[in-house]
Amino acid sequence: MSHVENSPAETASWAVAPEAVDSPVASALWRAYYTEVSDRYYLLHEKRRTAPEELEREIAAETGADLRPPTGVLLVARHEGEPAGTAGVRLMGDLKGTSTAELKRVFLREDMRGKGGAALLLAAAEDAARALGAGQLILDTRLDLVEARALYARHGYEESEPLTERMYAECWYVKRLAPAAG
Fold first, then answer.
1. pTM of the entire structure?
2. Interstrand relation of 136-141 and 98-108 (parallel, antiparallel or unpaired)
3. Per CATH, which fold does 8-18+70-176 belong to?
4. Contact between residue 16 and residue 120 where contact means Cβ atoms under 8 Å apart
């Protein structure tokens, strides 16, 4: 993911709102997400693209059920009305004495990157985590997803010790959330 500082015109062209995890929009964006991250992994490690059956297995394994209310939310970013990306937040409970939510499935379609949507999507996810009662947001990612790692660092996420155990998790981030203004 890349990031360009938002101008008022770019911000006005973006909208971020909750979406049902089983909607056609969510399904299409997740397919694009899994295709990209899976292809990157296999091209890096095995010099091949994802086989169709591998992609279908990964998509079927992650239903997004953990992103349903009341303990989760899936956000969809739209650019000029067109679905452009996702971010999911799910409440995890306490971690080291702080109510914690996890950031998942942060993605912008490649043709939508560099238009300011990533920062807006992250801000909306942080607001959603606060609304769920979280005092911090955690995530894991892979080392090869350097654009995502740079995005998180730019927005105040700090690398941490392992916080989850997942097959592809190679680095972890945490961000303490300031209380909502207001």
1. 0.87
2. parallel
3. Aminopeptidase (3.40.630)
4. yes
